[in-house]
Design brief:
- Belongs to the peptidase S26 family. IMP2 subfamily.
- The structure is a single chain.
- The strands form two sheets. This protein has a two-stranded antiparallel sheet with strand order 1-2. A two-stranded antiparallel ribbon has the order 3-4.
- It is built from three helices and four strands, in the order αββαββα.
- By secondary structure, the chain is α+β, with helices and mostly antiparallel strands.
- The protein folds into two domains: about 35 residues; about 60 residues, no CATH class.
Amino acid sequence: MAQSQAWVKRYLKAFCKGFFVAVPVAVTFLDRVACVARVEGASMQPSLNPGGSQSSDVVLLNHWKVRNFEVHRGDIVSLVSPKNPEQKIIKRVIALEGDIVRDVRKLKRM
């Protein structure tokens, strides 16, 4: 009986050591380096979520590139929605600082 109690104590001690190391490392990684997100909706079709409302894609969001301002035209970025701050949206970058963007639909009407 003493041996089984010693084994349980060793197991709990090893679990706690691993837990208290793994959780801060995982939280720091997800906050600073990258995290996984689910894409729902049709705004990024056909690149993401080609099945529409029946399915959703999973993407890896790279926090490191955004933090170092390494965003280029064509990149897909995630940001907080200006209409609903509790929601994140995913969009493709079409222009960078200093670029002039014209609405092609308005130019075709003229």
